[in-house]
Amino acid sequence: MADRAPDPRMLSVLKKTVGVLNDAGIPFALAGSMACWALGGPPSHHDVDLALQRSDAERALKALGAAGFRVEHPPEGWLVKAWADGILVDLIWAPMGLQVTRKVLRAARPVNVDGMQVPALAPTDVLTSKLLALNESHLDFEGLLAIVRGVREQIDWDELRRRTGDQPLARSFLYMAAELGLIPAPAPAPLARGA
């Protein structure tokens, strides 16, 4: 489906990055909007996000630099960046609400990306980070609704609500999505004894 395809340059850079990391023996998983796309959501048009362990970040940057990528250590402290063909690749070890560990990477599922098998973070993990990243200056409910429509059958909604329950904007989004009938409503809270 043509409208489901991301920018061909993004796919090319993703494939090149995957090849470099595989050759270097660095475990990773597709993350962010690109993972949502690979799992059935809308196409990503921003960048390529890959999750990896913090301990592998420098080795990954070195391998990508040797393969011709331009690399950068931004000040944020939870990711490093690489560019090829004008496409940004974020290598992330601490997305919002998640620490990338071996266990998280082992839970990744293989997806077919333009004929190449690539591990993708579990959809519940991806959506956790996206919901926790919401803030008053970044309220992309439209993009999140499109993602939810594409991957809703793959999400553990009770777990997602548990992980994001302290964030008012995440709660608001999940309430709206349930009211629209896109996701199941939360289970009613049990009555207290004697109530």
Poorly predicted runs of 5 or more residues: none
- Mean pLDDT across all residues, rounded? 91
What is the radius of gyration computed over CA atoms, rounded to a whole number of angstroms? 18 Å
* Portion in helices: 40-55%
The helix count comes to 8
Element-level helix/strand string: HEHEHEEEHEEHHHH
* Beta-strand content estimate: 15-25%
Task: Specify the structural class.
Answer: alpha+beta
Number of DSSP E strands: 7
Shape: elongated
Sequence of strands across the biggest β-sheet: 1-2-5-4-3
Could you tell me how far the N terminus lies from the C terminus, measured between alpha carbons in angstroms? 54 Å
- In quaternary terms, these chains amount to single chain
Largest sheet: 5 strands, mixed
List the SSEs and their pairings.
Elements: H1 8-23, E1 29-31, H2 32-38, E2 48-51, H3 57-66, E3 70-72, E4 79-84, E5 87-92, H4 102-106, E6 109-113, E7 116-120, H5 123-132, H6 141-151, H7 157-164, H8 168-179
Parallel strand pairs: 2-5
Antiparallel strand pairs: 1-2, 3-4, 4-5, 6-7
